[in-house]
Amino acid sequence: DEGDYSTALKHYEKLIERWNNHHAFEENPYYDKAGHAAFALQDYGKANEYFAHSMHYGTADVKTYLALIAYNHEIDNFSREMTTLTGLIEKFPDEAAKTGAHERLFEMYVETSRWEEAAGLASHISAATDVKLLEQLLIVYQRLDDEEEEERIAKKMLQIDSNNTAALEWQGKKYFDAAEARYAAETEAYERNKSRRQYAQLLRGYEEAGEDYRKARDIFERLYRENPERRYAIYLYNIYARFQDEGKANYYRQRF
Fold it and tell me: Would you say 251 and 243 are in contact if contact means Cβ atoms under 8 Å apart?
């Protein structure tokens, strides 16, 4: 009870003083114990003071890190929570893996747009089945322009949830971009050399681009039916404009 913790705190404070009078400060084993007693008494100022010493000197145990992570999260001290999570992962990697420390730190890196640091934790995230975490990892790879990893994560997301909006949108954009690149390349090649042979190549290229346009169209129509957002309408307008379908192109044009 409170009386026991109060007695314990006084006891450990005396031991701290006695130890420091006869031994090296950095080897003092009582800062951590005093910190836990103060923490139990909700004397967080004193607890943080003692925990700061034990963490600095490397005598803090895993319970100290977990207590501080929970406390800093509760009071919304973002920077201290991040620092303590990093310390837990470095000093107690096995315990960190059990408590979801990597996932929480990853979310904090994403929240603060620290894409490289977030990618550094990818090995702990990519094996997850939590689609929300995978959506964040997809964003990280998009910011880093890592198309290979983007595709790997998007495919995994769709294996878990075939209706996942973020993964479907990524896939639709992939097909659209591929179609646009092929269309532009074939058009430019024909403009440089308007021969019969190049014209035949132009038609073949347009047909192959058309396949990707149709894949993109199917995805964006599906997304638009579920959520008629402007960006989906823009994609569909451009696709139907390529198909020279004026009616449908105008339909979507009016929706953005």
Answer: no
Q: Please state, as a whole number, how many other Cβ atoms lie within 10 Å of the Cβ of residue 92.
A: 18
Print pLDDT tens along the chain (256 aa): 566 999 999 999 999 999 999 888 788 999 999 999 999 999 999 999 999 999 999 999 999 999 999 999 999 999 999 999 999 999 999 999 999 999 999 999 999 999 999 999 999 998 888 999 999 999 999 999 999 999 999 999 999 999 999 999 999 999 999 999 999 999 999 999 999 999 999 999 999 999 999 999 999 999 999 999 999 999 999 999 999 999 999 999 999 9
Q: Which of 185, 177, 170, 168 is nearest to 219 (CA)?
A: 168
Length of the chain in residues, anyone?
256
CA–CA–CA angle 39, 45, 46 (5° rounding): 65
**How far apart (Å, rounded) are the C-alpha atoms in residues 141 and 42?**
42
Distance between CA atoms of residues 116 and 140, nearest Å: 8
Angle between helices 246-253 and 230-242 (to 10 degrees): 160
Q: Interior CA angle at 117 toward 112 and 123, to 5°?
A: 125
Token pair 């322009």 in the structure block, residue: 145
Coil, helix or strand for 252? helix
Sign of CA dihedral 239, 245, 250, 255: negative
| Ramachandran angles phi, psi of 161, nearest 5° | -145, 100
Contacts of residues 157-162 at CB distance under 8 Å and 24 or more positions apart, as own/partner, are 157/131, 160/129, 160/131, 160/134, 161/131
